[in-house]
Amino acid sequence: MRIDVGAVSDFEQRRVRIVNAGNHEVGVLRWGERFFAVHNRCPHQSGPVCRGIVSGRLTSRVPGSMEVDEETPILACPWHGWEFELERGRALWDPHYAVKVAPVHVESGRVVLEVRRGPAA
């Protein structure tokens, strides 16, 4: 099911906006010119993951230094800090854990989600 969730201009940079998409609550993130969509449910204890902190991924090339990878948005669950990369939804510490992601794209200045029909996630 395709759902128009608003104009591109309705989405602030680097802020998750929670929208209702069918039977799902989905967080939509604008990151530069890209958009990401993730179901608002952490796989750990079903916390509201989309109310967490968004940042670039922290990396280190050598001990004692930290850099921010601005190309890779990360979402941290507000309940216990589990971090997920938003491209595929995988947890940083173990790719076997993941948040559900939904395809999202821009059409004629509008943000459009693709979500499955069915029971709430």
Structural write-up:
It is a single chain. With 121 residues, the protein is mainly β. The protein has a single domain (2-114), classed as Rieske Iron-sulfur Protein. 0% of the residues lie in helices and 45% in strands. It contains no helices and nine strands. The two termini are 15 Å apart. The mean pLDDT is 90.
CATH topology: Rieske Iron-sulfur Protein
Order of helices and strands: EEEEEEEEE
| Assembly state of the chains shown | single chain
What coarse outline follows from CA principal-axis ratios?
A: globular
Class from secondary-structure proportions: mainly beta
- Count up the helices: 0
At the first level of CATH, the class is Mainly Beta
Strand content: over 45%
Major β-sheet strand ordering:
1-9-8
Number of strands: 9
Using the CA coordinates, give the radius of gyration. 14 Å
Poorly predicted spans: none
Mean pLDDT comes to 90
Measure the end-to-end span. Answer: 15 Å
Domain count: the total is 1
Helix content: under 10%
Largest sheet report: 3 strands, antiparallel
